[in-house]
Protein 1
Amino acid sequence: MENGFQSTRAEAFPAGLRVLVVDDDVTWLKVLEKMLKKCSYEVTTCCLAIDALNMLRERKDGFDIVISDVNMPDMDGFKLLELVGLEMDLPVIMMSVDGETSRVMKGVQHGACDYLLKPVRMKELKNIWQHVFRKKIHEVKDIESYEVIDDIHLMRNGFERFEDSHLLSGEVGPKKILDLMNIPWLTRENVASHLQKYRLYLSRLEKESEPNTAFGCFKQTDFSPKDPSVGFGLQSSITAHQSREACSSFGFSSGEVHVQPIDTEIKEGDLKDIIPLLPSPEARNALVGKLHEIQKKTSGSQIDFSSSVGSVGLDVKCNSFDATGLRKHQWSGGFSDMQFKRQTEPDNKLYRHASPAFVSPHSSIETNCLQPAPSVNAGAPISKMEKESSSGSGIKRLCGRYQTSNVTYLPAMTSTESPLPLQPESGIGNILLSGRACTMNESSSAKSNSFCHSKSSSWGYDQKDLFEASTAVLQSSNENLPVSSLQDYDYVENTVLNNIEFLEYDDLELFAALPGQHCDRLKFNSDYNLSEPVEYPAMDQGLFIV
DNA sequence: TTTCCTATCT
DNA sequence: TAGATAGGAA
């Protein structure tokens, strides 16, 4: 199994495991060194925690595991444990003569992968390799999850071509979408099926919005948690376009805020092509009206159109300004958040739970650049999910389809100040206000967090951004959720068991030097004769995969 | 024959 | 609720 070890060491594993032992008691150091060497491990000993830390820092990849005493004069063992965990991400085993549960718990909470009671048993030392192995397995799992992102990038590229090919002009069929996405494992049936769902959704949305929602008007219902138009699953962004005249409007999905100067004027032909795709009669009528304006070349009127196929979705944004530049309509919608099952590759397990989804059109908004919509900026109620998130239970499923995301409401502002650092001169500016719409999946880990923590720098539906947003979820959630650093609870139990049995030693010289209370607890057992090399049982991966 | 759409199943 | 599939229509 590829687990990250260098090939030669991997073959010999667990023999050659590089162990750093830290204990201020020289006698114990010698005992442990000898025992560990009997296990065919490479042993380095250190009397001071600070020296151990320096050694670890100097030899970044020089050790596989650390065994540290809890009580040391220069540095608390827990502190060392914390630092090693933070800086080296190495498994650390704590050891102490004190087996008090609270103490053991503290060790585990600080990130110890095991807590051994002195005197340490040979059996326990023999099995410390499992902690290294377990960690490697987790790392491999993380890497596999990263590969999902690579394929998501593949989808993004497909959508970019989708945009480049002007697919928006004319009817969009599953075949064409499929061809242009150019994703090998995707089938036309996949696309068709989800297109069907998407259209069903649109028709439902249209029916629901007919009685009270006119195009261009911002309604409170736009932010209903059950309204998919607010955003789907990963799709969580607020898009604010800023015209050259510094006229701003805000399109809401949720979560992210993007500010972008609009510099692409719509062409008449483009508009004609877009109109049939609009989800509602109001939207179509609005654009038809604007099309007439263009055709008439009415002075002072401007329609800005930006079509963006984000990384994983087709997104259409239409913005229209009146002659004064004070008001505009915006419609935004398209396909996004595409996740498809990989049917044709049964060996691929990464997408087993993935599924396609077409994102809904975003809520349409009419606003005035001089007087931002009060319902948006001031006193707007927080959506249900936002409340849940802030109350500490806001972890949502990552792959929720047709499911609303959080809406992040901007703080109240006056006409003279903008809640967003608009950058009319310098181009695109993005602000991630909040990304609590979704969670990492079950394979998420601290490693995943570090992988994803870089900030978003693009706008639109960038799947990467969404993952980053997901990370932000976790990071922000940490403040609210009782996140425990307990990594493997079974260690706690294991530690308790340590108290039951006694150790096995056969080196009487060494034990003669041990403090009396230690010797008292010893039981010599010929099962672990130090003169014989230790044999390891065949590794059963199933035993160690959590 | 291919593609799309709809209904139905899972 | 959403994806898969079957069957009819163009």
Protein 2
Amino acid sequence: MLEIETLSPPRTFSNLKPWLQNHYRDLPKRLQSVAVFALHNPDVIALNTVAVISEQAGVTPSTMVRFAKSIGYQGFSDMQEVFQQSMRHVPQPYSERLSSMQGPVDLEQTVLSQFTQAATESISRLEQQADEAAIKQASLQLACARTVYIAGQGRAEPVVAYLHYTLVKLGIHATLLQGTSPTITDKARMLREDEVLVAISFSPYTANTKELVDVCLGNGVKVVAITDSTLSPIARTDDYHLEVLEEEVSGFRGLSATMCLALCLAVEAGKQRVERQEMALS
Amino acid sequence: MLEIETLSPPRTFSNLKPWLQNHYRDLPKRLQSVAVFALHNPDVIALNTVAVISEQAGVTPSTMVRFAKSIGYQGFSDMQEVFQQSMRHVPQPYSERLSSMQGPVDLEQTVLSQFTQAATESISRLEQQADEAAIKQASLQLACARTVYIAGQGRAEPVVAYLHYTLVKLGIHATLLQGTSPTITDKARMLREDEVLVAISFSPYTANTKELVDVCLGNGVKVVAITDSTLSPIARTDDYHLEVLEEEVSGFRGLSATMCLALCLAVEAGKQRVERQEMALS
DNA sequence: TTTTTTATGAAATAAATATTCCAAAAAGTA
DNA sequence: TACTTTTTGGAATATTTATTTCATAAAAAA
């Protein structure tokens, strides 16, 4: 009978890799071929059933289970979890920690490290999936506008304040659009076609900001929306919208990535404005 | 009974996204929340069972199946395939990402990547050199205070707004201290000894905020300062001060790390307040 | 309001999936 | 060679997982 590893098996894919390299020569022929397959196609193992995987690997389902057990896993499913873990977008706190840090680690993450981790993750996502072209187009609207109006409530208010501060510093004429429901809508009606509204809103969405967007779009005023989802009621196909999603930690969402996006938008607008002015002079 | 889409459903995640955007409004409440969850956490849907996913999404398994069917899929499994497909050929996030970070940096960096990089560095520095104990002590002051007053101008204003928003959400009594020079100093004189001032100020420092700090310290009011340097005039040895330094990109400083710190401070204060209340009860 | 329709969750059922078992084949040993 | 040990694949079983059903709750319509 096949010797089965009794010690606890690798709990991360990056630990499993060297394990397989070390034990490769001691494995039976079929199990060796599974090892090679596993190292080359981790995503296949993560996303399929034993039947499908074993077929692709050219072995029988039983062999697949035996392979997992020979490493020390309770069964195939147990091993599959490790492969799935390596694909998850949000790294689970302690599994990644074990591989990167050696020795006993404090299981309790500090509040600070939880939030910095979430912030880093959010910013990284912003960089990867943000639409560079959309930012350029949106900033062009701000650069061309005679005046930029900025609106947003609740968690969006800090973003509004920062965008306003930065645009003004860059010499772009920007104004806050503040107030309660009936007043602010009236203000929105005053916007001209050569002006732009920047609407910032996050889940849970306030009907208030949506109203502004509707009024402006109805009057032919350009709208740039910053939101955390394209499902947001203020996201439309006929305006310019930017998406930024903040990772959540125990119910709290930060604003790190959002602030970064706001700064980009403002700086890009500043650059485009300078380019336009140079064009006009020549 | 719920109308079920009879036409063939989207076969890729990138097609599913706009589908959900267009039909979002027509969906029942629970199905809407599933739609939001699905767009925000595609990896969770790809890698888990209905039981696990529906729990995370805050709905029942039945709802999950209904959601899939309402789009036109045969069932949950059919829909899950689409989510899995979007992950299949994606290279391993971590190993790939790290190796690309170490390589030579792109010569032409986009504005976005410049700022995300600066933000990431700032946050990383915050995590490494922030004084965990100082955060705890400062948050304890906020937790004990009858009212927390928050002041700051210019680039600090977004931070003031965010801290205020978060503290209030956590049930901590917080008020903005706004106004121009003579008025605001008068307001500061009203603070009692069981209240706390949070002063936020960055280089170049405004004399204004310093004045507030001096007034408060003179009256025995506790002050928590957030600044970008211990050289800041509002940083003293006898108050609680937190330091956060934002990396600069061609003259612009972001607020990503600062926002992260503000959130930490608020959440930590919220935690300590709960602990205090539990102590009081026993 | 009352009636009708629609939406929802819990439990029962059906389907699929992983795991175990065992006979047979292959490899190793004397 | 004959005997023992290990490995393998296929079928039976146990378990998990998705799906359907149905009673009830919530909206919408009358």
